[in-house]
C-alpha cells in the first residue's frame, strides 16, 4: 500500500528524454554474453545455494530495461525522491544528451546523441563522468547510478535471487509470526456537514507524530487529558509478515525510501509510518553520552540535561522497552567488528537493544519487525496511551497550525475562513491544526489545551514554516550523522542479512581533537538496493555484476559522524520540506579517519577485498602473502583514502538520524523552543522530537529523543496544572 504522503507523481519525460534515460540505464546494467559473461559467472561463490545459481544466467544476460517494470519504478523514484532543482537538472541533462551538440558538450567529442553511441562508448563516457573534475558531470553520474541501481535491486526478485539475497518467501524464520499483541482502533473523520465547510474534531491535546517523540509524549499526557495522535504515515502492523525492500520503502519511508538533499550529495532515509523511526530502526538503544549532556547544559545553558530528572527520563524510557545487552547474540558481521577491533586494539562495546529480553536475530527490522519483538512506540508507549483513552488518526498530514489571540477562547467549531486562524504577532495561541487526509479531503482538529509537534526534524520545521511562523532559526541547525560505507568481501560466507543488525560499536575516532566530534564504526543493515546504489562504487557493468554475485560473502560497516557543522530544512513553493546539506571538510575528515579504522578492522579479520564509496579510490585487494596492516600496499591505499577524504559528490554519503532543526535554547534569537519545550512567541505549542537537539547527539538518537519527549511532556503537564 502506497499512501499519498509518502510519494509523489512519477517524473514526466518526453520520448527523447526517455530514450536517453534507457540508454544510460542499459549502460550501467548491461546485457553480457560470450566470454565476458563467463568471466562474470565465474565469480559465483562455490557455496551459493541452488536457487541463486539458477538465476545467474538471466542476471548476467539481462540489461536494465529488460527487467520487468524497471523504468516505470525509476521514474517514480525520481519523482518522489529528488528536489525540484535536482530533478530539473537531471531532465535538462537528458534533453542535452538526446542531441548531438549536447552529447558533445557533456561527453566530450562524440558526434552522435548519447543513445546512438555503442554501449562501450557510453560506458567510457560514464566512467569519465565518475571521476570528472566538473561537478555537473560527476553529479549526473552519482544520480543516475544511485537511483537506477537502487531501483532495480529494490524491485526485482530475479536480481535478489541472483546475488543470494532472500526475498520474503525465501527467508528463514526463527519463530512463528504472530498477530500484533495489541489491537489499535483508528478514528474515521466524519464528513463535512456542507460542501463548503471543513469537518472538525475536538480534543484537549493534539500530538502530531507517533515516533520516538510523539509516541512517548502521548503515554504521559493521555493519562490526564483527552488526546489525539495524528500520523501522516499508515499503520503497518509488525508481527504479520516480512516485507520486501520495495514494499518497505513505499509503506514505511518518506518519499518512497530516498530523500536527496538539494545538491544531491547526501541521501536521507526517514521513517513515515505509525511509530515513526522506532518502527524502522535497528533496535540500537544508546543513552545520551556524558559529554553531550555536559555540552548542552554548560555551553547551551540547558541545565536540565545534567539533572537527576533527565537521568530518570533516560531510565524510564529504557525500562519501558526492556533495553538490555544481556540477551544479545551477535551476527557474523557484528562479530567481525568485535574481533577486528580487539585484534587492532580499538575500543568496542555492545549496543543495548530495545527487544525486551528477546535474542531477536532479525536482520530485516528496517522493513518493520516481522516478529514484533522490537519495542518501538507501537508496541509500548502508544499502547499505554491507548489504554488511557488516547485516539489515533493515520494517513493525515498537518498542513498548518491554527492560532487565535492570547485571550480568546478556543472554539469548538469553525466559522469563516481558516486564513483568519493564521499565525500573526497578534494571533499566537495555538489551538489545533488543518489536516490533509489521504483521500484529498481536509479535517480541522481543535485542541483546547495544547498542541505537541513531534513530526521529526524534517517535518516539524516544515509545519512551522507553512503555518507562518517567522523565527529565522526554524529549520536551521540540521544535523544528520552523515555516514559513509566500507564494504569487504571474505572467502567465507557471511550472509550479512542474518542475525541482529547492529549490536556492536567502536568509538575509536569519536573524539578526534578534544571537542568530542568524530565518528563511530558500526554495522549497517544489509540491503542490495543500498549496496548497489550507494555503498559500492560503479566502475563498469561487468565489474558491478561480478561484485554483486559475491554479495553473500560481504559485509558493510558505516562510519557514523557526530557532525559539528549543519545544514537547513526549508519549504519549496509547494510547501514540501527540502534539505540543504553537504558534509563539511571537518566532518568529512572525521569520516575518512573512521573509514581507515574500519578498513583496519576488516583486514585484520580476513577480508580479501575492501571498498569504500570514494570516487577514484580503488578497492584494496589483500593478495597472497600480504603483511596485514604493515603491508606497504595497504599503507599506500590508506594514504589514498585519507587524501581523498569524504567530500560532497566525491563519496557516497547517507543519513538516517535527522536532528536539531527546532533547537532548544535560552533565547529566541538562538533557538526555536525554550528549555521547557515551548515554541518562542506562542502559547499552548510545544515541540518534542529530535528537532529540539541543540547539537548532534553522537549516538543513535532514539533514546535521547524519547528522554526529551518524556521530559517535555512532564513540563507540559506541570504548565497545564499551574494554569
Automatic annotation (TrEMBL):
Domain Glucose-methanol-choline oxidoreductase C-terminal, first and last residues per copy: 572-709
Gene Ontology terms for molecular function: flavin adenine dinucleotide binding; long-chain-alcohol oxidase activity
UniProt protein name: Long-chain-alcohol oxidase
Role of this protein: Long-chain fatty alcohol oxidase involved in the omega-oxidation pathway of lipid degradation.
Protein's UniProt keywords contain Nucleus: no
Similarity-based family: Belongs to the GMC oxidoreductase family.
EC category name: oxidoreductase
DNA-binding in keyword set: no
Subcellular location: Membrane
Sorted UniProt keywords: FAD, Flavoprotein, Membrane, Oxidoreductase, Transmembrane, Transmembrane helix
GO CC annotation: membrane
Catalytic activity: a long-chain primary fatty alcohol + O2 = a long-chain fatty aldehyde + H2O2
EC numbers on record: 1.1.3.20
Provenance organism: Kwoniella shandongensis
Domain of life where this protein originates: Eukaryota
Gene3D superfamilies named in the record: FAD/NAD(P)-binding domain (3.50.50.60)
Major subcellular site: membrane
Cofactor list: FAD
Domain Glucose-methanol-choline oxidoreductase N-terminal residues, every copy: 249-483
Amino acid at each position: 500500500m502506497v499512501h499519498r504522503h509518502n510519494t509523489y507523481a512519477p517524473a514526466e519525460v518526453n520520448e527523447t528524454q526517455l530514450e536517453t534515460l534507457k540508454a544510460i540505464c542499459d549502460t550501467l546494467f548491461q546485457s553480457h554474453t560470450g566470454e565476458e559473461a563467463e568471466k562474470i559467472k565465474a565469480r559465483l561463490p562455490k557455496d551459493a545455494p541452488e536457487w541463486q545459481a539458477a538465476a545467474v544466467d538471466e542476471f548476467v544476460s539481462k540489461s536494465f530495461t529488460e527487467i520487468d517494470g524497471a523504468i516505470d519504478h525509476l521514474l517514480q523514484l525520481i519523482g518522489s525522491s529528488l528536489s525540484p532543482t535536482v530533478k530539473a537538472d537531471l531532465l535538462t541533462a537528458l534533453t542535452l544528451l538526446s542531441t548531438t551538440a549536447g552529447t558533445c558538450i557533456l561527453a566530450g567529442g562524440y558526434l552522435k546523441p548519447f543513445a546512438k553511441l555503442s554501449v562501450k562508448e557510453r560506458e567510457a563516457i560514464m566512467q569519465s563522468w565518475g571521476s570528472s573534475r566538473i561537478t555537473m558531470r560527476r553529479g549526473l553520474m552519482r544520480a543516475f547510478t544511485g537511483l537506477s541501481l537502487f531501483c532495480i535491486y529494490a524491485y526485482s526478485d530475479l536480481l535478489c535471487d541472483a546475488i543470494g539475497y532472500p526475498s520474503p518467501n525465501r527467508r528463514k524464520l526463527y519463530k512463528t509470526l504472530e498477530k500484533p499483541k495489541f489491537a489499535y482502533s483508528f478514528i474515521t473523520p466524519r464528513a463535512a456537514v456542507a460542501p463548503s465547510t471543513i469537518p472538525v474534531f475536538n480534543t484537549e491535546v493534539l500530538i502530531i507524530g507517533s515516533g520516538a517523540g510523539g509516541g512517548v509524549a502521548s503515554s504521559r499526557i493521555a493519562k490526564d487529558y483527552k488526546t489525539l495522535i495524528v500520523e501522516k504515515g499508515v499503520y503497518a502492523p509488525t508481527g504479520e509478515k516480512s516485507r520486501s525492500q520495495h514494499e518497505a520503502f513505499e509503506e514505511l519511508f518518506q518519499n518512497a525510501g530516498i530523500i536527496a538533499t538539494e545538491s544531491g550529495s547526501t541521501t536521507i532515509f526517514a521513517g513515515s509510518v505509525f511509530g515513526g523511526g522506532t518502527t524502522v530502526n535497528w533496535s540500537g538503544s544508546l543513552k545520551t553520552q556524558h559529554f553531550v549532556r555536559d555540552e548542552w547544559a554548560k555551553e547551551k545553558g540547558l541545565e536540565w540535561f545534567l539533572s537527576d530528572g533527565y537521568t530518570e527520563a533516560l531510565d524510564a524510557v529504557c525500562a519501558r522497552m526492556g533495553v538490555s545487552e544481556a540477551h544479545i547474540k551477535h551476527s557474523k558481521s557484528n562479530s567481525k567488528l568485535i574481533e577486528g577491533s580487539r585484534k587492532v586494539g580499538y575500543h568496542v562495546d555492545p549496543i543495548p537493544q530495545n527487544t525486551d529480553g528477546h535474542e531477536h536475530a532479525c536482520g530485516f527490522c528496517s522493513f518493520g519487525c516481522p516478529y514484533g519483538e522490537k519495542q518501538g512506540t507501537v508496541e509500548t508507549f502508544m499502547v499505554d496511551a491507548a489504554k488511557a483513552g488516547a485516539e489515533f488518526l493515520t494517513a493525515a498530514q498537518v498542513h498548518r497550525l491554527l492560532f487565535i489571540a492570547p485571550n480568546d477562547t478556543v472554539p469548538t467549531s469553525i466559522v469563516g475562513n481558516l486564513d483568519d486562524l493564521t499565525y500573526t504577532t497578534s494571533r499566537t495561541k495555538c489551538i489545533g491544526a488543518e489536516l490533509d487526509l489521504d483521500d484529498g479531503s481536509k479535517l480541522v482538529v481543535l485542541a483546547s489545551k495544547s498542541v505537541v509537534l513531534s513530526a521529526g526534524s524534517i517535518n516539524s520545521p516544515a509545519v512551522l514554516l507553512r503555518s507562518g511562523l517567522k523565527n529565522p532559526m526554524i529549520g536551521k541547525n540540521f544535523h544528520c550523522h552523515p555516514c559513509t560505507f566500507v564494504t569487504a568481501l571474505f572467502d567465507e560466507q557471511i550472509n550479512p542479512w542474518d542475525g541482529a543488525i547492529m549490536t556492536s560499536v567502536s568509538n575509536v575516532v569519536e573524539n578526534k581533537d578534544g571537542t568530542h566530534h568524530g565518528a563511530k564504526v558500526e554495522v549497517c543493515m544489509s540491503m542490495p538496493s543500498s549496496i548497489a546504489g550507494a555503498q559500492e562504487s560503479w566502475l563498469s557493468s561487468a565489474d558491478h555484476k561480478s561484485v554483486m554475485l559475491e554479495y553473500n560473502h560481504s559485509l558493510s560497516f558505516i562510519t557514523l559522524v557526530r557532525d559539528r557543522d549543519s545544514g537547513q530544512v526549508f519549504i519549496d513553493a509547494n510547501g514540501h520540506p527540502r534539505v540543504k546539506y553537504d558534509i563539511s571538510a571537518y566532518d568529512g575528515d572525521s569520516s575518512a579517519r573512521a573509514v581507515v579504522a574500519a578498513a583496519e578492522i576488516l583486514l585484520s579479520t580476513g577480508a580479501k577485498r575492501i571498498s569504500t564509496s570514494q570516487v577514484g579510490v580503488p578497492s584494496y585487494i589483500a593478495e597472497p602473502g600480504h603483511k596485514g596492516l604493515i603491508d606497504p600496499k595497504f599503507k599506500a591505499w590508506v594514504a589514498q583514502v585519507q587524501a581523498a577524504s569524504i567530500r560532497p559528490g566525491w563519496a557516497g554519503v547517507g543519513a538516517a538520524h535527522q536532528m536539531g532543526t527546532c533547537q532548544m535554547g535560552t533565547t529566541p534569537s538562538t533557538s526555536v523552543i525554550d528549555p521547557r519545550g515551548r515554541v518562542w512567541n506562542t502559547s499552548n505549542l510545544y515541540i518534542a522530537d529530535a528537532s529540539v537537539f541543540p547539537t548532534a547527539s553522537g549516538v543513535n538518537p532514539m533514546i535521547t529523543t524519547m528522554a526529551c519527549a518524556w521530559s517535555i511532556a512532564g513540563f507540559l503537564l506541570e504548565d497545564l496544572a499551574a494554569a
